[in-house]
Structures are given as C-alpha cells and as structure tokens.
Amino acid sequence: MDSLDERLLQLSRTAGDRAFDPVAGLIGEPAAYNPIHTRVWTGTRHPYRESNLYALTLLETGEIARAEAVLGPVLAAQDVDDASPTYGIWSYYAEEPLAAMAPPDWNWADFLGRDLAFILLRHADRLSPDCRTAIETALRHAARSIIRRNVAMSYTNIAAKGTFVTLAAGQLLDDQELTRYAVERVGRLSDQLRDAGSFAEYNSPGYWAITMEAITAIGHYVEEPAAVDGAGWIAEQLWRHLIQRWHRPTGQLSGPMARSYGDDLGTNTPVLALLAKATGQQPPFDAVPLDRPALSLVVPAILEFAAPEAVLDALLDSPIGQIREQFSHSTVAGRRHPIQGTTWRTPRATLGTANTSEFWLQRRPLLGYWTGPDEAEQDRPWDRHRHVRLRFCKDDFDFSSAVFSSVQAGGHVLWAVGFISPGGDEHIGLHKIESGQPFSARSLKLIFEVADPDATVRAGSLLPTSPDAAPVRIDAGVIRLELSVAAARFGPFRPRGLTRRTEQGVEATVELLPGGSERELIMNEITDGYLVGSFSMIESDAATGRTSGIDLTVDGDVLRAGWTTPDGNRLELSAPATIGTAEQHLARYRGAVDGVVVEARPLTRGSR
To answer: Tell me: the pLDDT tens digits for 550-573?
Structure first.
C-alpha cells in the first residue's frame, strides 16, 4: 500500500474513531435538518451507512473484533421480510425505523450492499464464521432488493452501484441467477448511455466519483468477462465526460451540473483523492487538501484508478475554448428534446449553463469559476475558490418549481426563468406541489450568488429603470460580471431588484413577492410568471463592444428574447411566459446562436 492510500485510510479511521459512540456501538453524529427521507433533525443520531463504512475501515486497519461488533447492529437493522415493501434496505438512523421515514430510501440496499461486498471480497477469511454468514445473508437480501426495484439506468450512480452489488453478490454467493441479471444490467447501462448520448446525472462531482468507484470495482473484483469489458467502456466515457469540463487553473469542474452538494471541489476530498491517485499525484494533485477526515475515503484507498494518457494530459493542463455536450433527452408528444450543456473555458475563468433545468437544491444550471490575480495560486488551486451561481429560492430554500432556460456563446448567456405546475418544493420529486394545490411563501427570489470577498459592485441597475439603463457590473479581480434583468413578471406582484454585499461576496436579487408577508399561492392560477435577462463573464483586460438591450416579445404562452452579446453574437431564446407543465416547458424551448439552433454532440457518438 502506497503512502497516499495509507493517508486516506488514516483519515477514514480518524473520522470513525472520533464519531464512534461506544454505548450505541455505532457512529454518532449531531442531527441536522434534511428535508429528504428523514425527520431526525435534533439531538444525536446513529447512521447505519457510516457505521458500515467504519466497519470496513476497521478491517482495513486490522481491528477485526471491533469491526464485527459494529457490524452486529447494522446487519440486524436490515428489513429481511421478502413480503415487505422495504425488503432488503435499511433506515438511515437507529433512532428512526423504516416505517417512520418519509419515505424510506431504497438506495440504501445499494449503498450498504456495496460496502458489505467489499468486506467479503477483501476480508472474508479474517471474519468469524457467524459474522461472515450474516454478511452473506445481508448481501443476498440487498441484491434481491436491488433486482426487485430494478432502477432505471438513467439514475446513473445508483445504476452503477447496484450493478456492482449484484455482480459481487452473484460471484460471492455462487448465485447464477444474480450473475445473469447483473451481466445483463451492465449491457443495459451501456445502452442507456448510448441512447441518451451521455450521463443523465451529468457533470455531478460526487456522483461521478461514486459511479467511477463502482465501475472500477467491477474491473477489480468481478470475474465475468462480459461485465468487465462493458465496465471498461463505461469508465472510458466517465473520464471523457469529466475532462470536458475540468478546469485546471481553478481546480474545479465547471458547470452545468445535474447534481451537486457544494460549489467548491476543494471540500470534496473523495473526488480529489480519486483524481490524485489517477494522476499519480502529479501537480497540482500533489497539493490536494487531505486534511479533512471522512469515512468515505476508505473506498478510494482500496481501489486503483489510472487515467488514460489523453485524460491525464487534460487533467494536468486542461484545454481552453467552448464545448457543447448532449447529456440526455426527454420525449414530449413523440418528439425528443435534448438536455444539453455549454461550457466556456479560458486560462483564468470558466462558465457553464444547461439549456433547460430546474432549480432544485442539487442543480447548477448556471455556474462559473475564476482564478485569483496571483498566478502562483494555480499551484494550489483549492486554497481559495471563487464562483458565481444562479439560484431561485422560496423562503430561502432552493425551489424546484422554478425552471431555467438559456442559450450561451462564450462567456455570455441569454436566460429565462419560468415556473411549472405540477412541480416540486424543497425536493424535486418527494415534495410535490400538485396542480391547483395551494402553497405558502414569504419570498420568491432569483439570486445571482457571487462568492468572492474581493468582488465589488461598480455600477448599473438590475431591473430596468430606463431603456438605456446599464447592467449591474461586478468587478472580481481577473474577471468582471455584467448582469441585467430585462423583465420580471409574477401575476399581480411588482418585483424589486437589490444588489448587496455579503460576507462571501455579492448577491444580486430579484424578489417577486416584495414585503415579506406570508402569502398563499396557487401556482397555475398565476396569470404570467417569468424573468428574462442576460449574464456575461468577461476577462478584465478583454476588449468588448457595447452591450445591447434585450429585445423581448410575448406571444400568448411563449416569450421570445434576442440579445447581441459584447462579442457580437446574436443569441435568441424562446421559453414559457405562463405557468405550464414540465413537458410544456421543454416543448416551448428554443435556443439559437447567430440564427443557428444550438445542437450539441452526444458524448458517446462513435463509441463502440
């Protein structure tokens, strides 16, 4: 084991030892608000997933007796009744049985099943016979649960993880039925990628790593040649997908992102640890900040990653320019509507947008990064990060019923925000706001969030005060941001614009419900609801032309906007002007640059 693996194991062990509760025999942690699945928000809670990772870490570091002791309550908590709707899964916490969850999370068969498979693959001969038998039984139940659920292959990280679990279970338990299912599932996952064009969970840092770990584990531990060959092809696509948006100067993945839990990759140690291993810790990956103990680091410690030569070159010195990629597609009334992204990269800055997206907490439909003025900072890009992100919030929490449309050329974006009904609230799928259902809100606001403490607002008006009003200009070292909102409508309300300093940098906000009082709304009874604007990220020393105003017309249910960027490109965007369904949002979208409809190339086109 090399020194990096030892360091990762040490960090995992430190995290586990610090959090271990000897009374409960499990990992303990302070409870916090989480609107997804659980209601354990106060006190101390004891998670089964982290406890399972701790048991794996203990085995990797030679603590067999304690590992078996931790595994005892974890294994006992699984639902093993095959007549139960939650068969084969676990609750999140010892304090909350499956029946009390809102709702249970079927992914826990995949998450815990993966780590039980690792335990058997790596340590079966060191376990007591009773413990080994109990783990084998739990793995069988988890694999059967995964088969019963048979998740869509577009659910990328779970599709990959469950494929590894069922392959490992079939091999370890000598179960040919499991193996046949799992090998066929590798083929289905490959077919999904070819049909969609790329990954439906596109450019998602944490889930990219989880998917890569699962696919790599298939190559390491599985003996079925067809599964290994298919996994090798998927790994190639994962690497190609990553490097198209990797930005070496900032050490970040640029936008857009389908799913993310943070905006600074420097805090996502498992992803950086994987990349450090894959690059042989060549600069800047020799400076990965490995100072955050985390139980999840045990997984990259026990797997080997090797970036292909072309990928390695891109990670160490990422190319510049603009790329477009088709991630997936949705079918409405028999017609395919592509979901695609545009990413622009320079040696100092990067900006990415999705053509259509929701404003769920995990979405990043407009996201950009830039470097500091000190060139030496690029040797340690994670010491400090700077970003801009577009959000839409209800009562200060990201609102899933708001939707995004855009067209981008270089560092310039013409965008629109609308609303759908039925839609989501805090969670895109679990917290539905049905058509005609009232919901309460004190605030509905669009936020340009600029995280750079050196950022300074220089001039301009966010909402138009006159036909020739200048956009808001924010200077942020090597770049400047220019943003304006040409129109904001939400029923009878009169939106307000505000630009203010924050501890992190600057926020430019359009509030659709001024006053801050609680209101009861019915989304599909709002007569019109949309915002339209422009956004530019411009390198400070770049020469640009004068920014034009946005030409906007509203024709029934559709708005049409046109804007000539400072670089001279003509951007055209069609989007909903009224509240409709998600399908109508897609059907009304159109984006063009200089009169040509934007069509992105699928990642997998031409792949074997």
So the answer is: 999 999 999 999 999 999 999 999
